What we know:
The protein is an all-alpha fold. It has one domain. It has helices at 22-37, 39-46, 52-75, 83-107, 110-116, 120-132, 138-155, 165-189, 195-219, 232-260, 262-267, 272-282, 289-305. It is globular.
Amino acid sequence: MTARPLPSGTAPAEARPLPGARLPGNLLAMGSMVVWAAGFPAAEGLLSDWEPLALVPARLAMGLLLLLPVWLALEGWPRGVPWGRCFLIGTIGIGGAAVAAIFAQAATDPVTVAVIASIAPLSATLVEWIYERRPLTRAFLLGLAATIAGGVIATMGGGAGQGNLWLGAVLAVSSSLVYSWGSYMTVRQLPTLSGLGQTTATLTGACVAMTALVALATALGWTALPADPFRASDLGLLAVYGMGALALSQLLFILSIHRLGVAIASFHMNLAPFYVMLILIALGGQWSWMQAAGAAVVAAGVLLAQR
């Protein structure tokens, strides 16, 4: 079965917030950001052995090891999948965003990338407005401002500012814009697939495209795989970075977009620094009142925007 074309300017029901779905939508977005946050320290550990570009298809492949068997087991062999759209959205929205994000972290540091990522709600709001022209209420705009401010507060004083800041900023902003577009188009352009199918199909497209890109770059001598890519320590970090911070996080995020819309779901991204802090506390780190305060401001903004 194929989807009928939509009238110009019209989004399917899946792209709009659903009535009565706010609580489960917010819980899904929170879960997505918790596992996404774990990817920052995992990526930092991997960058000591991996070149940034070579790391992208490895991460994508690890994510597919989780999602593909689950998709096939639950829904059977996929039929009627619009693979052309899946490959386009996956290559740009997931692959492109992943490349820009890992190079941004390699050029700077995780905290700097987290600070710049606080524009994610603004990027998602811009994408949603361009395609739907949805009116922006005063409560929504105040919530957006609070969320961005909270994201900055949560990452202040955390050691940001290392490396090439201009390059890191351009790459991080590009990643945010491309990811917001990809997440929106996943829900809007693939309405015949379930949330699991949407996530797995676009991830497959991204993995194929990025593997081909890295194979070409390796042949040309632009990048290289690590001497021992199958070290147990690296595989563990890749599992966190690919299965958790990419595959599971993306699945939960797509499901939250079905219920909240991409703009509101993206507000939760600015809680990531707080979740990173909680993860580090579990590993022996220290509590930060600055990050806790920022998380409180973000949470207030999320609630205010949904009035």
